[in-house]
Every structure is written in C-alpha cells, then in structure tokens.
C-alpha cells in the first residue's frame, strides 16, 4: 500500500486563517477504531491523517482470536448492549449506525467471507486475522485517508488562538480543528498500547476512571489446580468472589458480573499458574477492579449440566446397587480422569476405595467438590496478558450520539480508550468499530455543515 506523505494531503478547503491546518481530522492510533474511523471520515469527504506509532497498523487485529480474529458476535445491537452491562446503553447510537451485521457486510464486501461458530463468534472463513486487517487497509486506502506509520504522538494541545488542536509527534507538529483519539488501553503494552491517550484526555479536562486489566487469567497457588495444567473443560460454571476488605471499590456489575461477585459459564483451562479460558477471563474484571492486589476465590461447578440433588441421588443409587466398585466410577462419566482424581482427593477419597465404604459425609463432600469447589485465588496476571483494559475515559463526558467530548469541542474518542470493556466473543471489536463509525459520521456532518455554510 502506498503511503502518501502527511505533508501532501489531498486538495480541500483551507483551514482557519492564521494556522491553516492541512487536515480536517487527525486520527491517533490505527487499531480497529482508528482504521475504520479514518476510513469513514475520508469517504465522507474529510481530509484525514491517521497516525500510528507502530510500523504495522492493526497489530491487535493480527493477534486476536489466536490469530483467527473473532470479529464480532452473531447477535443484534441489543445483544451487544446487554453484554456490556451498565455501560452498554452508551453504545445504543453507535450500534444503531453500525451493527454486527454491518461489520460482517463491510468485511465480506472486501472479499473476506466470514463464518459463525456454534458459540456465536464470527471469524473470517479463512481463520486468518491477516485477511481482516488487509480488508480494512484496502478500504482505508480507497478512502483517500493518509496513514502515517512509525510515528508516536506525544501530546495534544488545544490552541485557543487558532481554535485548533496542535498534535505534537516525533516527526513534528500537525494540526487540525478536530481530533479522534483511538489509542486503545493499557493491555499488551508491547503492541503500542501504553495508555498515552488517557493522559491527553485528562489534560484536556476529562475524567479517566480507574483502570485495571480485564479478560485476564487468574492466579491460584493451589497445587492441585496447577497440577492439572493443560486440562480444558468445555463447560464449567464459575463464580468469582472477592475477599471482604477489597469488595466494591471499583467493579461495576456486568450481566452477572457484580461488585464483589461475578458468574459465568463456558470454557475453563487449568494452567501452571491457575485458570484461563473464556469463563475465568470474563469474570476477571471483578477481581482486578477491586484492587491491584485483591484476592478471592473461584467457586467451580465442573459439571453444570447435572443438578446437585440428582447427582447425590444417582451416587446413592450406585453405592446401593454396586458397592464393590471403586469410587472412581462416580466421576468417570462426569469429568476427565485427572480432574476426577482431583475432586475425589478434595473429598478425601481415592479412586479404588469401594463405593460401600465411602460413607455419607465423604459422598456429600464429593458432590460439593464437583458442584461447588472453592478455589482460593491469589490475584490475576497483569496488563501483559489482559485482552482489554477496564475503565477509561468517563462515558458521562462523551456524547454517545456523536462520540464528541463534552469537555472540549472538536475532540472525539472511540474504541477501548473509553470506559467500556466487554466479554470474550467479538464484543470488544464491535464496540471499537461501531463507536469509530459513529464518530466519523458525526465529524463529517460537522465539517461538511461548516463547508456548506461558508
Ligand atoms: C491477545 C488479544 C486478543 C484479542 N482478541 C480479540 C478478539 O478475538 N475479538 C475481540 O473483539 N477483541 C479481541 N481483543 C481485544 C481487541 O483487540 C481490542 O479491544 C481492540 O483492538 C481495541 O481497539 P482500539 O482500536 O480501540 O485500540 P487498539 O487496537 O489497542 O489500537 C490502538 C492503537 O493506537 C496506537 N497508539 C497508542 N498510542 C499511540 C501514540 N502515542 N501515537 C500513535 N499511535 C498510538 C497503538 O499502537 C495501537 O495500534 C484481543 C486483545 C488482545 C490483546
């Protein structure tokens, strides 16, 4: 892709007298939000400069979904709003303008077919995140927006005299009357996301809510958990509880994700440090938002399709009818054998102990170990392993119908920099794309309105 110099923008109307900015809009950060925001604004007639500190745009797209890119979720706008919990309604206007179906259509129109998996996750049919990144770059290129790579923005200052933003970059200043900040959060800082945009937002008058790693693996020092490293359960129901002192200091409820308690059901992976997989990741924000050192426990139901009373009754029947068999037979139909051994041990049992010798107390303990095993947690991994950042630019200070700052006219935000974080499943990309699309349309309406009035 040829990249024109930022000093040679396409022809367009002159900027305000005195400063004469060459650009109608500067977009900072070429992740999904910046790429689509810049594209759409340029398509609507704006002279757009998109600045990215990495040498490659859309780095997180490339690594997403295990390099398969879980683009979005097979749901409607309401499904996305609900997944974001109390913060979700902020997305109403953005999703009304750019829904999951619109995103799929946009990517497919670039020659990248998509597929829906049974979980509702939508991926490129090729399973190649690269195809999605390339599709976005093709459209960006056609739009006429200028992409400047390998240049970090250092600061944004509003110059009252010229009523324009001065954007200081490593390669010199650029200016425009409008800026769209799409610098993402703090997760995976090696990708360029080092929270730069938060500082600019604060200096321009915004509140940035407390941030914490989200969709992040959980730590447990329990030897039996770590010994199961590598074992995956496709369906577990878990509840995370935060320890007393840490409760309620920051986490907001999301679906069943609450201030000091969060539940989810789905895949669970045992690791050498604790837990990973979709369900643990989805509840992690409740722990991390409570405090950086918060501890708690994960109550694990390893067989959520079985009712506790039915399981108890079934075990009793088998003990009565087949007392000479070993205790292992009780768990073999329910759980992978390594986990079966672990829950037997939790209940003080061993595989070869005869059913007739188990006794009522240990049987109850076994049902508890299967249905509600409380595993102490010693925290979570950090931003290096967090898929998103919880917290960010306070939503109350951003107009949800335009994505424009309520503190500073001409300043816009989209994507993960906002105080929005969704669960695993393509929700975060959708929010980034939708907020950017809406911002671009609002920006274009403003600029084109001004042009018409001149
Ligand atoms: C490993 C991993 C896997 C993921 N998988 C999925 C998935 O499958 N589905 C999903 O929905 N979500 C996924 N996510 C989350 C998703 O990637 C983010 O929510 C999304 O990328 C946010 O988009 P954004 O455009 O707001 O910010 P980002 O994608 O973070 O982009 C921000 C850009 O701004 C640039 N930038 C930052 N500071 C500056 C500066 N000072 N000057 C210039 N440029 C700057 C950064 O280099 C970066 O390119 C995943 C995240 C990770 C880390």
CATH topology of the largest domain: FAD/NAD(P)-binding domain
The largest pleated sheet is described as:
7 strands, antiparallel
Euclidean distance between termini CA atoms? 35 Å
Helical proportion?
Answer: 25-40%
Low-confidence stretches: 1-18, 249-255
Describe the structure.
The protein has 454 residues and is an alpha+beta fold. The chain has two domains: 25-211 and 386-453, 3-Layer(bba) Sandwich (FAD/NAD(P)-binding domain); 217-381, no CATH class. It contains 14 helices and 20 strands. The strands form five sheets. Strands 17-16-13-14-15-12-18 form a seven-stranded antiparallel β-sheet. Strands 6-2-1-10-20 form a five-stranded parallel β-sheet, with helices on one face. It has a three-stranded antiparallel β-sheet with strand order 3-5-4. Helix 1 packs parallel to helix 6, helix 2 runs antiparallel to helix 6 (129-143) and helix 10 (308-321) packs across helix 13 (360-371). The radius of gyration is 26 Å and the shape is elongated. Flavin-adenine dinucleotide binds at residues 28-34, 51-54, 59-60, 63-65, 69-70, 152-153, 182-184, 187-188, 192-193, 196, 387-388, 415-416, 426-429, 432.
């Amino acid at each position: 892709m040829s990249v024109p110099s930022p000093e040679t923008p396409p022809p367009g109307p002159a900027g305000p007298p005195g400063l004469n900015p060459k650009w109608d809009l500067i977009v900072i950060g070429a992740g999904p939000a910046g790429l689509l925001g810049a594209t759409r604004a340029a398509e609507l007639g704006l002279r757009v400069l998109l600045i990215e500190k990495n040498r490659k745009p859309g780095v997180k797209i490339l690594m997403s979904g295990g390099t398969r890119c879980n683009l979005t979720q097979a749901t409607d706008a309401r499904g996305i709003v609900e997944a974001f919990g109390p913060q979700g309604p902020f997305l109403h206007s953005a999703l009304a303008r750019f829904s999951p179906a619109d995103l799929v259509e946009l990517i497919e129109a670039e020659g990248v077919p998509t597929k829906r998996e049974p979980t509702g996750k939508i991926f490129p049919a090729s399973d190649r995140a690269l195809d999605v990144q390339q599709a976005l770059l093709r459209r960006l290129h056609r739009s006429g927006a200028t992409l400047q790579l390998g240049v970090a923005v250092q600061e944004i200052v509003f110059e009252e005299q010229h009523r324009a933003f001065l954007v200081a970059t490593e390669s010199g200043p650029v200016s425009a009357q409008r800026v769209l900040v799409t610098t993402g959060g703090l997760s995976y800082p090696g990708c360029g996301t080092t929270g730069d945009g938060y500082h600019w937002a604060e200096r321009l008058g915004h509140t940035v809510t407390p941030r914490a790693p989200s969709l992040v693996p959980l730590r447990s020092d329990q030897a039996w958990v770590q010994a199961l490293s590598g074992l995956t359960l496709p369906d577990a129901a878990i509840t995370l509880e935060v320890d007393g002192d840490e409760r309620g200091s920051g986490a907001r409820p999301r679906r069943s994700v609450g201030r000091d308690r969060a539940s989810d059901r789905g895949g669970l992976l045992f690791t050498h440090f604790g837990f990973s997989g979709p369900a643990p990741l989805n509840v992690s924000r409740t722990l991390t938002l409570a405090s950086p050192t918060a501890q708690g426990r994960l109550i694990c139901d390893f067989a959520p399709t079985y009712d506790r009373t039915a399981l108890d009754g079934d075990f009793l029947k088998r003990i009565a009818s087949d007392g000479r068999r070993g205790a292992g037979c009780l768990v073999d139909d329910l759980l992978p054998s390594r986990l079966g051994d672990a829950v037997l041990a939790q209940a003080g049992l061993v595989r070869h102990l005869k059913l007739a010798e188990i006794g009522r107390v240990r049987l109850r303990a076994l049902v508890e170990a299967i249905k509600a095993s409380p595993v102490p947690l010693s925290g979570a991994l950090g931003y290096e392993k967090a898929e998103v950042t919880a917290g960010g630019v306070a939503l109350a200070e951003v107009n949800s119908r335009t994505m424009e700052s309520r503190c500073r006219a001409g300043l816009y935000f989209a994507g993960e920099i906002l105080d929005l974080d969704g669960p695993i499943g393509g929700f975060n990309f959708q929010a980034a794309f939708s907020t950017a699309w809406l911002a671009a349309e609002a920006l274009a309406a403003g600029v084109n309105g001004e042009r018409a009035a001149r």
